[in-house]
């Protein structure tokens, strides 16, 4: 359902993605791990064209894009791709002047042209799903980080994307709030939501992932099931990364 081939991306002289190939099947949870600076965020941002790749191709269902340096992607294509990819950022990025329910209604009204009543009832159902039905009318600053992140997940889901993209959804949270967010993501996984998740939470990764991708220095070092990548890799650099992580625990 998502196919990425030979994806390249540079920032000036710095080549950050050096030919990435990957496939995400419908209903699959793919987790991306790897050292800081290896290109995980950049790769994720290429999925919804927050970064435009220099070379390679990206296909999401019927949308197929070939990238060449300097070529412009039509705005229409960018919008239709974004509509199918809900993004959840590390820092939630909720609209501060809107209530929780306002945040979850916004995209439905502006992008999907739903009526306010329809958007409101859908938003309420989603807030209920992430355990926040009672917080619908409060503003982001009145919510904890974990609650804000759950509103952000509800907001990302509200436009019914094909895939949800998460960039370290718990790394800005106090440790005691991490669990409530991971629980929501695990529930979505059980319901068959297609997701691509960048995370440093290895136990969560092992638990939720159908496939894990280990990136290093702009390439995929290892990919496979959690067991294959986390327990059976023989790649020295992958082992070095994983050993360093387990040393930190
Ligand atoms: N907009 C940008 N302009 C210039 N360089 C950038 C830009 N975005 C990222 N980079 C560089 O690209 C490299 C990869 O960054 P990226 O954010 O993708 O890494 P990451 O794997 O997500 O790291 P982390 O685990 O720390 O989040 C880094 O060297 C970073 O400095
Ligand atoms: Mg990152």
Automatic annotation (TrEMBL):
InterPro entries: AAA+_ATPase, ABC_ATPase_HisP-typ, ABC_transporter-like_ATP-bd, ABC_transporter-like_CS, MetN_ABC_transporter-like, P-loop_NTPase. Keywords: ATP-binding, Cell membrane, Membrane, Nucleotide-binding, Transport. It is a peripheral membrane protein. CDD domains: ABC_HisP_GlnQ (cd03262). It is found in: Cell membrane. Pfam families: ABC_tran (PF00005). GO terms for molecular function: ATP binding. It comes from the Bacteria. Residues 2-242 form the ABC transporter domain. PROSITE patterns: ABC_TRANSPORTER_1, ABC_TRANSPORTER_2. PANTHER family: AMINO ACID IMPORT ATP-BINDING PROTEIN (PTHR43166), L-CYSTINE IMPORT ATP-BINDING PROTEIN TCYN (PTHR43166:SF35). This is Amino acid ABC transporter ATP-binding protein. It comes from Paenibacillus tritici.
């Amino acid at each position: 359902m998502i196919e990425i081939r030979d994806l390249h991306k540079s920032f000036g002289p710095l080549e950050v993605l050096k030919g990435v190939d990957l496939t995400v099947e419908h209903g699959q949870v793919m987790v991306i791990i790897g050292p800081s600076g290896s290109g995980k965020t950049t790769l994720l941002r290429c999925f919804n064209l927050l970064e435009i790749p220099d070379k390679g191709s990206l296909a999401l269902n019927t949308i197929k894009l070939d990238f060449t340096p300097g070529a412009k992607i039509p705005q229409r294509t960018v919008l239709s791709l974004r509509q199918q990819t809900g993004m959840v950022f590390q820092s939630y990025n909720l609209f501060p002047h809107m209530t929780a329910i306002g945040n979850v209604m916004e995209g439905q009204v502006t992008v999907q042209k739903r009526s306010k009543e329809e958007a409101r009832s859908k938003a309420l159902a989603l807030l209920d799903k992430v355990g926040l039905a009672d917080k619908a009318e409060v503003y982001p600053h009145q919510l904890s980080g974990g609650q804000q992140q759950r509103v952000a997940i509800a907001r990302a889901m509200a436009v019914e994307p094909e895939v949800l993209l998460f960039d370290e959804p718990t790394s800005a949270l106090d440790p005691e709030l991490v669990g409530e967010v991971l629980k929501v993501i695990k529930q979505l996984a059980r319901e068959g939501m297609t997701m691509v998740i960048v995370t440093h939470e290895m136990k969560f990764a092992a638990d939720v992932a159908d496939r894990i991708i280990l990136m290093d220095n702009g390439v995929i070092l290892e990919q496979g099931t959690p067991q294959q990548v986390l327990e059976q890799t023989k790649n020295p650099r992958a082992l070095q990364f994983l050993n360093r992580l387990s040393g930190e625990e």
